[in-house]
Amino acid sequence: MAKGSQLFQLKSALSQAGISKTQNGKKRKRSHSIDQDKIKKAAKLQEIHKKLNPFDVKVTKLKHDVGGRKIKGSKGQPAQSKQAGIQQREMTLLREFQDRGRVGGVVDRRFGENDPSMSIEERMLERFTKERQRASKGTIFNLEGEEQLTHYGQSLSNLDDFDDVGLPMDEDEDDDQGQLDRDIVGSAHFGGFGDKDEDETDHNSDRKKSKAEVMAEVIAKSKEHKARRQLEKVQEESMRHQLDEDFDSLRSLLFAPDAQPTDNNVAALGSSGNQPDIPSVDIDEQMDYDRQVRELAFDQRAQPKDRTKTEDELALEEKEALEKAERQRRRRMLGDDGEDSDDGGKNHGKRKRERGGDDLEDDFLGDELWEGIGSGLGEVGINDQAVAEGDSEEEDENEGVDEDEDEDEETDDEDENSEAEEGNESNFGSEAGSVSGGNFHEITTSQKSAKLKPPGGSRHELPFTFPCPESHEEFLEIIGETDDTDVPIVVQRIRTLHHPSLSPGNKVKLQNLASVLVDHVLYITSPPAPRSTLLNSIIPHLFALCRSYPIESAGIFVEKLSLMHKNLERGLSRGVLELGTRTWPGSAELSFLRTTGVIWSSSDMSHPVISPARLLMGAYLGLCRVRSLTDITSGLFLSSIFLQYEELSKRLVPEAINFSINAVLHLAPSSLKNVASIPGSFPSPDFRSDLCAPLAIDIKKSKHLDFRTPNLYRLLTDDNHQEQDKLDLLGLAFRLLDRFSEMYKSLDGFIELYQPVLDILRKIDVTKLSEGVRMQASSLQDRLTRLLKFSRQARRPLLLQAHKPIPIPTYIPKFESRSSSYLRRHDPDHERNEASKLRYQLKQEKKGAIRELRKDAKFLAAVEHKQQTEKDRAYKEHMNKAFSSLEGERAEQKAMDREKAKEKRRSGRK
């Protein structure tokens, strides 16, 4: 190609191709040769264009060039592709964009209207032809003519009104399920319609029956069937009538004035001329039938039931009932015995029963005192088992409120769960250490015997409405003159009056109530007189509140645990062996920890409340030192709480086992002299110390004493300890070791854990104590010996892991039968390979769709920009014309003003 500018190169290429020459005035060639020349000229121009612009062709460089292989898409023409895409979008997308605001319109769908190749005459001729064709189609089924021949050339006028077609004459004729015979269908339904006057004299059986014969036979059969059905219907009616008459005679016999007719009367009735003969009926059967008829007559019909009320409606009813009872109580206090305004005058006119001389003055409160509300509200199904076993007066009061309590769904559900938790919890008082007898969480008889009596007599009458306390001080003011047995009733009524569905602010009030109850738990279990019975009755309400608001309640418990941890740190910093420092938890803290295990789930792997409580109890048992019998009592109490926590999860708590065996070392007489002589590796820093030496049991004073259930609350609050208390704590330590062994016998390290315990138990000397103590110690040693024996038998030595031999890796190349390209991805699994291909295709299609959408958006943006530019240009031209017109007018006006000024000056006017 020649050198120079693009224009020079273009001119050179055109001259060499012979395109730039001008046409001479020769004769015009034929049209065919002209078309061929145009095609050749366009090809030359295309070739010249390619040579002048080499960037129109894009070549993709291959990483691995293989000779003879053709790859689709390796060469491309971006400019042409772009131009083709633009043209395609102008034909489709641009038209849609331009027509996006159009609605309606008339589309001309006449024949040939959109065909530009047809002339007007051709269109009209084709339309006329199609119109005549449509008109000729309708004449085939036109029945308005005189003679329209159908059915083998017969006229419809010659046919009767389908008398011979075999249609049923009556709706009752349902012979053969309403179906016609095959011969009738074949002959009558477009199958012949022979003449009626054809020869009928030939009755030969071989010949085929005519249509008239077939129709006559069908009609005869139909009439016969209809007559037979009529006869059966008459017979059934007569039989029914006879049965009705017989029943009337039997009924007159049954309901005769004589309730017990004799056999002669029955026979006479049966043989009389006015009555039909009936068989003799047995007297017993008559009486049974008579009784059944009377029972059916007096049977009560089912009554419609009220709809199931919602939780909000039930809560509102409970609140209104309590408020009504409170108003009645206040009227009784003021001596007003008038009618209740809430009753609406329903009880007006009812006089109270007058008292007689034999009355014992035991109906002072009267029935209207309680009216289904009273102290029993909230007791059934929510208080402790001891509360549920009240006296007869309490049961009578509860009968009146069972309906209301059953309707309150939320309260009852919470209370049932509370009962379940209560049934599993142990007594927080003297029974806290009772871990023998199979059920560690058993409530003792002494607690079950506690009775909660309703208010009345000398007791303070309990109100029915209470404000919701925001602090523990307000709660103490509310229950200031209330008996402990009535405190759960007060809490229940507060929860009922402040149900969350009654007011939006009640939710916050009940959350504060949960915090108040936690503070009250610590208050009632504090020295000097912890009240475990009241604690057991409050726990169900606290459990229900914690279940309703778990997040807020968990924060309350965690806050208390954090405060207890700070107190522990403060006590440890002052000295673990100082007698004045308080390191071990007291009765209030221990009761709180046990309540925490009752309310929250202690079997979770990680719990926001139980996990900190478990760490705190482990710190108590591991860091605190034993200085007195009270410390041993607190440690054994913590060990029993650990046993309660880990009963389901069976986590190993070495601190609890360590303290239990240390308690045995401190209390029981043994032959061990110092820490070095103790078997195993249990840490015992206080063994045989100056503070712990007096804690050992005196054999002379305890030789006739036996194990009893220790009252841990008394031991925690009373400093006057006897030898019986030491012996009771030793028995508790034995029971704890026994229960922990049953819990941990499935552990792999049970042998290493309990073999030192068994060795220590063999070292203690209980031969001079009572028979019961010796038997229990011997029984514990036997059980541990048996469990250790079973654990050794079940233990197996460590072995190498059994597995298949590992094959030697091979480096032979993998050849594929379907493809020789080792670069392509191939999966031996056919389904996975196909899924991978589909995912790849989906990815490619998605990328292509995104690319096309971007091009469409770019094209539409260019069109909009072009339209906006055109609008701006037209607006600018219009404004320029307007300004130029205004400027011209202004210029003419100024010129006229100047001329007028000149005229004035000429004429001498200014």
Automatic annotation (TrEMBL):
Query: Where does this one sit in the cell?
Result: Nucleus, Nucleolus
Q: Does the keyword Nucleus apply?
A: yes
Q: Name one GO cellular component term.
A: Noc4p-Nop14p complex
* Compositional bias annotation for Basic and acidic residues: 32-41, 202-214, 229-244, 288-326, 865-880, 887-902
The residues forming a coiled coil are none
> Is ATP-binding given among the entry's keywords?
no
InterPro entries (UniProt xref)? Nop14
Where does this protein have compositionally biased stretches of type Acidic residues? 160-178, 359-370, 390-424
Q: Where is this region: Disordered?
A: 14-41, 67-87, 152-441, 865-910
Q: Where is the composition biased (Polar residues)?
A: 14-23, 77-87, 261-277
Primary localization class, coarse: nucleus
Assigned keywords, A-Z: Nucleus, Ribosome biogenesis, rRNA processing
GO BP, one example? maturation of SSU-rRNA
Describe the task this protein carries out: Involved in nucleolar processing of pre-18S ribosomal RNA. Has a role in the nuclear export of 40S pre-ribosomal subunit to the cytoplasm.
Q: Which family does it belong to?
A: Belongs to the NOP14 family.
Please state what the protein is called: Nop14-like protein
